[in-house]
Amino acid sequence: MTTEAPTQLPPIKRRNAELVMTLAAVAITLFAMIEAGLTRNGEMPASLFVYGVLFGGLATLAHVFIRFFAPWSDPLLLPLATLLNGLGIAMLWRLFEATGDTSEGSAQDQLILTAASMAVFAALVYFLKEPRTLQRYPYIMALAAVVLLLLPLIPGIGMTVNGARQWVNLGVTTLQPSEFAKIALVVFLAGYMVTKRDVLALASRQVKIGPLKVLDLPRARDLAPMAAMWGFCIIVLVIVMNDLGTALMLFGTFLAMIYVATHRSNWLVIGLTAFFGACALIYPFVSHFRVRMVTWLDAFRPDVYCTDEAMANPDSFCQTAGNSQQLVQGLFAMAEGGMTGAGLGGGKPGFVPEVQNDFIFVAFGEELGLAGCMVMLMAMALLVERGMRIALASKELFIKMFASGISFLIAFQTFVVIGGVTRVIPMTGATIPFVAKGGSALLSSWVMLALLMRMSNNARKPAPQAIQDEGATQVISR
Amino acid sequence: MNKPIRRLAIFSLALFGVLMLNVSWIQTFQAESLQEHPYNRRQFVESLTQHRGSILVGSEEVAYSEPVGGDSEQFQRKYKNGQMYAPVVGAFRAGSATGIERAENSFLDGSNQLLAVNNFRDMLTGEEPEGADVYLTLNSGAQQAAMDGLESLGNNGAAVALDPETGAVLASYSSPSYDPSSVASVTETEQAAKKWTELEQSEQNPLLNRGLNEVYPPGSTYKVVTAAAALENGATPESTMAAPESLDLGAPLPNAWPGPCNDGNPDTLAHSIEISCNTSMANWAMELGPEKMHEQAEAFGFNQGPMEIPLDVTESSSPLETDPNILGRSGIGQANIESTPLQMAMVASGVANGGDVMKPYLVDSVQNSNLEEVKAAQPEVFSEAISSGTAEDLTQMMIAVTEGDEASGPAGAIPGMQVAGKTGTAETATGPTHNWFISFAPVDDPQVAVAVVVENGGESGGTLAAPIAKEMMEAVINE
C-alpha cells in the first residue's frame, strides 16, 4: 500500500558504541580545557583532574544508567549531549577560571548544574516509563505552561534581566520558568492536537481568487487554539515581558506541530500571515521590538552602533534606544576566528559584551573557527534528526507528535539564538541547548533529552516474544 | 503522520543549513572586511602584547616598543622627541592609533602580507615574531627648525618641507603639537585615556596636522600659480599689466600698501611678483579667464581629491570662478581658494623641479626584523604642472622676492646661495592675517622646498614665516 521508507529501526542496542563515543566527548572536553589552560596561563588547568573525574564520571554513570533502564534507546543521543555540554563547560572555564575572574559565572557552577540536570534526567528516564501517560493531562499541562510563563510577572519574585522579564528569584536560586513552560506546552499541544486533529484538518470555507482555490479556512471555532496561542505570544511575551525569543520559539513550534498533526499547509499560511501581520502591527507601538529590528538591519550605522560622536548627539538613535555593539563585536569575533580559529584561550572573546550568555557561540567561532562552528552545528543537527527519527519510529500518534515537537523545539531554539548572533534574523535572546550557561537552560535541555531517550527506547524495543509458539496467542506490548 | 514529520525533519535540517552557510560566509569571505572595519579595535589591542616595529627618522628610533617588564606580557610604546614628531608619527594607544602608527599599522604589527615569509621563518626557528621597522623620509634638522620656529612665535601654524626631486617629505610640523608618551601608557591607562580626551577636546586641536589636514587661504603665495598660468599662456616676465592703487571688484581691492605698484604705470609680471602687487595680479587672473586659471591650479594639485602619503591629506580647492570679481580675488589667493600648506609646498617644489611636481611621500622604506627591505619608496611624478621654461622664469622672479631691490621677503635669503621664495599675507574672515612663505633653495640645484604658514600672525609673510623657512632650508642644505 505504501512505498514509504521503513520507519522501524532495527532492534540493535549498540550500548558499547555509546560508551566509546561518550568517553570521546569527555576527552574532547578535557583536551579543550588543557588547550585553554596552556594558551592562557602556560600550564595545565589545576583542577583538570577534578573535572575529568566528575564530568567523565557523570557521563559514564548516565551511560550505565541507560544500559540498565533504557537499553534500547538511540546510542547517539547521550554522546551528542555530552559533547555539547562538555564544550560549554570548557568554554566557560576558558572565559572565567582561566582568566581568574569568576564574578560573572564559572565552569564549576556549570559542572554542578550539569550533575543536577543529569540526576533529573536519570529520574525522568526511570520513572516516566511510558511517556504516553502524559497524554492524559493536556489541560493541566497547558495550565502549568501558562503559570510558568507568567510567574516572572508576579511582583516580588519576578526579575528583569537585560530588559527581559523572564526570571524568577526563589531566594536560593534564580530560575527562567519559560525554559520549562515550553516543554509543558509541547506536551499539551501533542495531546490536544492528537485528539482534535480531525477537526483541525477540516475545511469549512474556501478562499478563492476568481476560479483559483487559494486557501481552505478551518472552522472558526477550530481556529481558536491558533488565535489564543498567537494572542498570548504577542500580548504577554512580546509586549508585557519583552521576551521575543520565547515568543518566537513557542509560535514556531506551535506551527510545526499543527502542521504535523493535520498535514495541512493552510495552517502554515494562516500562521505565517498572522505572524508577519502581528510584526507589522506592533512595529510602530512596541519600542523594544523596533530596536531589535533596527539593530539587526542597520547594525553598522554609526548612530546604531553608537560611536562616540553618535553618543554625543542628543538626537541619535542611541540616546533613546539600545545599540548594536554586542552584535557587531560578535561578528568581529567570528571574523577573527576565520577557518581554524585562534585556538581556545588564544582569542579575545572578552570584547563581546556578555559573551557567556547568548553570544557564547561567537566565542567558539573566534577560538575554534569555522571548523569548530561546523562541528557544533553538526552535533546539534544530528541530535535533532535523531529526535525526528524517533518520531518516525514510534507507533503512537501522541509520541510522534511529542518527539517531533521536542526535536523541532531544539532545532528552532538553536536557529533563533545562533541566527540572532550571526545576523540571520534579529537578535531575540534565548539560549543554545546544552551549551549555554545557566541552570534552567541546562536542566530543560536534559529533560528534553530524557523524554527523547525514553521514547526512543520504547520505539526501538522489539516486541516481546510469545511464550507459546502457537501464533494465536495475543501479545500485548506495554 | 510520517510524511509531515519527514518534511519537518528536512525543514529543521534546512535551518541548520542556513546557519552553516551564514557562518561560512562570515568566517571566510566577509572575514577580512570585518577585521579591517573601523569599529574593530582588535588589531590594535592585540599588538599591545606584540613586539611592534619601530618608526625611524634617519637612524634614530623615534617610536619603539619596550617590554613593560614584571608579569606583564605587554609592550610599552615609547617616543623620542615625541612632540617634535607627533604630527607625523601619531600615537599608538590602547585600542587605537593615529598618524603613521595607524597608516603603517600592518607593517608595524607584522600582519602585512609582505611580511608573511619572514613571519613563517621566525615561527620555524622559534623566534618571537616582530613587526617591521618603518623608515620615514623626515630630516631631523628641518623638523627641529620647523618646531623651534613655530613654537617660539606661539601662534598655531604649520611647516612642510619637500625634496623637490623626489617628493620625499623632509619636515612636517604642526603647532601646537603634543607628547604621544602622555597618551600611550599601557600601565596607567586611565590617565592616558583622560589625557587623550583632553587633547581631543582642546580648542587648539593639537591632534590635527595642519600641514596636511587644514586648509587656509594661501594669499599672495598663490600669485606663483597665477604667474605660472600667465607664462604658460604666452606672457613673459616682462609682460605688463595695469597696476593701480586699487581695483573695484565689487568691493575695492587695494594693494598691501597705499599706492600703485609702478608709479601708476603698468607693471611687469616679474616686478609684480617681487613686490607682491595685488592689483596687477588680480588683473592677470581676470585677463587669463576662469578656465586657464582653473586648469593651472589643477595641474599643481588643487581639486585632485584627498591623497594618502600614507597619511591622509585633505584636498585643496580652487573652484572655477566665472564671476570676474571673484576670479580677480582668487588670482591673489583669496576668495574661494583653500590650500593645505603641503599643497603650496608642492607648488614651490614643482617650480624647483623644472615644472614637474613629484608625489609627496613620508615612508622611505620598510625593513623586516631580519633587516631585509620589504618595501622601498619609488618617486613618482604627480603632474607636469608647467614647462621647464616657465619654471626657469618663475624661479628668476622668485629670487627677486628674497634679494631684489624691493624684495618682499628678504628674511628668507640665505647668505652664499640664491633662494627663490614668495611671501603671502592672507586675509581671514575672522581674525588677523595668516602669514605665509613658500620657497626653495639652492636655486642652481634645489634640495628643499618649503611652505610655512603662521595662523593669525597679523604681520606679513616676509617677517613671520620667511625666517622659519630659512632655518628649515639651511638645516637640509648644510647637512
From TrEMBL, chain A:
GO terms for molecular function: lipid-linked peptidoglycan transporter activity. InterPro entries: FtsW/RodA. It is a multi-pass membrane protein. Pfam families: FTSW_RODA_SPOVE. The chain crosses the membrane at residues 19-36, 48-69, 76-96, 111-128, 140-160, 223-240, 267-286, 359-385, 397-418, 430-452. The keyword Membrane applies. It is found in: Membrane. GO terms for biological process: cell division; regulation of cell shape. Keywords: Cell cycle, Cell division, Cell shape, Membrane, Transmembrane, Transmembrane helix. One of its GO terms (cellular component) is plasma membrane. This is Cell division protein. It comes from Streptomonospora alba.
TrEMBL record, chain B:
Gene3D superfamilies: DD-peptidase/beta-lactamase superfamily, Penicillin-binding protein 2a (Domain 2). GO terms for cellular component: plasma membrane. Residues 52-134 form the Penicillin binding protein A dimerisation domain. Keywords: Transferase. It comes from the Bacteria. Residues 157-474 form the Penicillin-binding protein transpeptidase domain. InterPro entries: Beta-lactam/transpept (IPR050515), Beta-lactam/transpept-like (IPR012338), PBPA_dimer (IPR054120), PCN-bd_Tpept (IPR001460). GO terms for molecular function: penicillin binding; peptidoglycan L,D-transpeptidase activity; transferase activity. Pfam families: PBP_dimer_2, Transpeptidase. SUPFAM superfamilies: beta-lactamase/transpeptidase-like. One of its GO terms (biological process) is cell wall organization. This is Peptidoglycan glycosyltransferase. It comes from Streptomonospora alba.
